[in-house]
Amino acid sequence: MVKIDAMVVLIISALLVSSWVPISYCSKKPAGIARKEDIPYIKCQVCEKLAHELYQQVQAKQAQISPKKISEYQIIELSENVCNLKKQEADWILKIDIVEQGDKLELVEQESEGQCNSKCKTIERACQEVMGYFDTDVAEYLYKNKPQVDTLVHFLCNELTAACATDPPPVPKDRTPGEPFVPKSSKEAEMDRLLKSMEGMPGAPGMKMYSREDLMKGDFGDEDAEEDDDNEGDFTSKLGKVLREKQSAKTDWKQKIMKKVVDTKEALQRHTDKVSYRIQKWWKSKRASINKNSKSSKPEL
Hints:
By secondary structure, the chain is mainly alpha-helical. 57% of the residues lie in helices and 4% in strands. It has a two-stranded antiparallel ribbon.
């Protein structure tokens, strides 16, 4: 019987490896959808919090690598990730709740991170709209000018963008309230940070993390399986179950691949737009420089 159990384990391992399904697979909790109609009411506040957060992250990075000086590339990396909830630099968004007060929406900072619902996604979307293609411009400004936080807020929200150029409109009286803020447990928050830190590692996406109790009990989600060590005929049923699970896993994996293709396509499109914007900006600057030089080189009559 011991030999049969060992064979079952070997077959399971081989099937899992052959289908490229991570043993530590775990389904993610469904995230909310951004409410685009709410963005005009919070855009200025998001911009101000974004500027404060970016300033603090640059200061923290500088302290971390001291006595070396932070590079412009490192600041660009921070500015590119600070509005992306898949990155640790955007964890600040998880601590903010959107609260309706009269005819206004207020961003209220909480003591701990919350579950990411539609409010969380709305703040992320507003942050991305503010930053837009200006991440390198903000990074260059931070690197060259080393401004104080108030100066950075004014530069980002009034000069570089128009996020705070006008007062937000009043919130409609019939606006549907958002979900309540649901704090994460400390374990959930720590696990999310761990998964984000493992982003990009082979086999890391979609990991299933078993609890210490599950590992001690040997509980790996197969609660309905009947364990009859005295019946060697169990081998056939176990093998059939493994094959069925493999087929299901293949289907799930195909869906993950298709989603990854779509996400990659969108990321490439955003990168293409960003590069095009930078090239246009460089060419305008170059053309202005050429025109200036050509005018100054004309002989006087």
